[in-house]
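sorry for the late reply, my laptop died twice this morning and i had to redo everyting from scratch. anyway the thing you sent over, i finally got around to it. pasting the sequence first so we're on the same page, its 372 residues, then the predicted structure underneath. double check i copied it right bc i was rushing
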Amino acid sequence: MKLNIAVLPGDGIGPEVTAQAVKTLKAIAMEFNHIFTFDYGLIGASAIDKTGNPLPEETIGICEKADAILFGAIGKTSYDLDPNAKIRPEQGLLGLRKTLDLYANIRPVIAYDDLLNKSSLKKNQIKDTNILIYRELTSGIYFGEKTLSDDGNTASDICTYTRAEIERITHLAFKAAQSRKHKLTLVDKANVLESSRLWRRVVQELAPQYPDVKLNYMYIDNAAMALIINPKQFDVILTENMFGDILSEEASVIVGSIGLLASASIGENHAMFEPIHGAYTKAANKGIANPIASILSAAMLLDHFGLDDEAALIREAVDKSLKLHITTPDLNTKYDNISTTKVGDFIEDFIQNPDETNLNFTNIHLGQSTII
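ok and here's the structure:
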């Protein structure tokens, strides 16, 4: 298969982790005789620094022509500390989602057996957790009208949803539930918010089209608590933009590190794949950023094009890296010199030698990351 992939490394640790995902995809292309080409673009703070625009027209053009987009991270501390900044890195990502109509964000949350002790939660609470979060991505409070009074003392953000926006992601979530455990939980705040009541009404109306899926409802405050107390009760979670953002970040506690959580953002004509973590600028260029979420996002990219065996091999390589403690410091207490690049090297080597299981730790320490 031939794929043209737009690569937007972004800011902070974005370029480091994205480089490992690209390395992984190149290894897959070589092993399975695919042709993957990569076209790079600017976004976020790096784009502002060079062009004054967090989403340059050239980047939009690169993405519109691509078969898929691989995205890194966005943000910069100087903007975080300046609430008065009119141009912000995040505008680049929000603008790209809106421009390409990437309305469905899909976030898997899986508790790996080899990392159960890395979570601050009890093992018996999180073991066998496997959740798929469907977050609406192009509407809601993040995109609603924003106002600030002339004296700067009153502000508002409007949360707006239409029936059509709710319907299209609801259908995707129901279909996903049909291929899993046939259970869908709508998370809203319908006891308070009119927008949530519309969500609940629309989802209820669509539910009869999926009679094999059990539909449950949960308020966001209760869901946030339940996700920690008993995450295994969930299968597919469907929710609006801000609630989905918060819940998926919270879910990183279950898996042990936010550096493990991948995502796909899907529209009718475009698809983007990215780790859910931010730019983490204070860790940039130190070799400590966990690239696994970015690498697993690359696996989701392959899933999107029906390259199931290829995606499965990446996930097998990730599983092996976790089992052998070939991980960055956020997860690794056994070895003190496993860098971002070395994790990527290990994944690449495993893809090229999947039948080999003995790891030469001496070579790892020398920076060669070779399976023998």
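Confidence is low (pLDDT under 50) at residues 364-372.
thats about all i looked at so far, will dig more tmrw
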